[in-house]
Write a structure and sequence with these properties.
This protein is α+β, with helices and mostly antiparallel strands. It has helices spanning 34-49, 74-89, 118-125, 129-137, 231-236, and strands at residues 13-16, 21-25, 53-58, 62-67, 103-110, 141-146, 153-156, 171-174, 178-182, 185-188, 193-195, 198-203, 223-228. α1 (34-49) packs across α2 (74-89). This is Allophanate hydrolase subunit 1.
């Protein structure tokens, strides 16, 4: 991407996402600073599209804008987006949120029995298990996007020392609440599902709840800290310490 004039923002691209959507690609790489720009564009879309707006889906680098094609033609929606981007790029800096996202502290038990990739990550990083745990738990992460599964939050940015690729062969079954890393991202699985991320431990947090407003505990822009606890504390707060190797088949959330 080339650099937009008078702005720290690269020149964005507007890509088709079907008859009722446009994908605005703002950045080529994942950076925490992206959130301010994505948030500024989302707020402007809410105002400019009004009742024609169906949904806004932010990610690390893009914003998906879904509109009502009965109220707005695709070309009209694209022109509206182009005008918003031109206005956004004219500013030297994006609008800032008045408040930071909510801070969540997730109690996490880091242990090879529930984090079978913990030792391999330590070897890859040339660090001790304790150093890996301290490194992962020692910073506050931002929620950049929700996806893959309801309540699954993509968070970053992970310390570069822990940067590891996804597994060559994804696991068919990852237990609920498993805390994982891949690349410079971290996440916790809200439900039992397949997954190819590297598992470090397990949290007690209920990440997806049908009785909760919005269902997901975490929202885009929220801040997350993983708080290391021992097994006794983990179980006392409702954590399931069943090792992955002996976890019964078909066990649910």
């Amino acid at each position: 991407m080339s650099q937009a004039p008078n702005s720290g923002l690269p020149t964005p691209r507007i890509e088709s996402a079907g008859l009722d959507g446009w994908l605005v690609r703002l950045f080529p790489t994942i950076e925490e600073a992206n959130l301010a720009w994505l948030g500024a564009l989302a707020r402007r879309c809410e105002t400019a599209f009004g009742e024609a707006l169906i949904d806004l889906v932010p990610s690390y680098t893009t914003l998906l804008v879904v509109f009502d094609p009965l109220r707005l033609t695709p070309e009209s929606a694209r022109r509206r987006l182009a005008d918003l981007l031109a206005d956004l790029l004219a500013d030297p800096a994006p609008e800032q949120e008045t408040e930071a996202g909510e801070l969540h502290e997730l109690l996490t038990w880091y242990d090879p029995s529930v984090g079978p990739d913990l030792e391999r990550v330590a070897q890859h990083a040339n660090m001790s298990l304790e150093a890996v745990i301290d490194c992962h738990a020692g910073q506050t992460y931002r929620v950049f996007a929700l996806g893959f599964a309801p309540g699954f939050a993509f968070m970053g940015l992970l310390d570069r020392r822990l940067e590891v690729p996804r597994l060559d062969t994804p696991r068919q079954r990852v237990p609920v609440n498993s805390v994982a890393i891949a690349g410079r991202q971290t996440a916790a699985y809200p439900a039992v599902s397949p997954g190819g991320w590297n598992l470090l431990g397990r949290t007690t947090a209920r990440l997806f709840d049908r009785d909760r407003e919005g269902f997901s505990l975490l929202r885009v822009g929220d801040r997350v800290r993983f708080v290391p606890v021992d097994r006794a504390t983990f179980e006392r707060h409702g954590g399931d310490a069943t090792p992955m190797e002996t976890r019964p088949r078909g066990a649910g959330i």
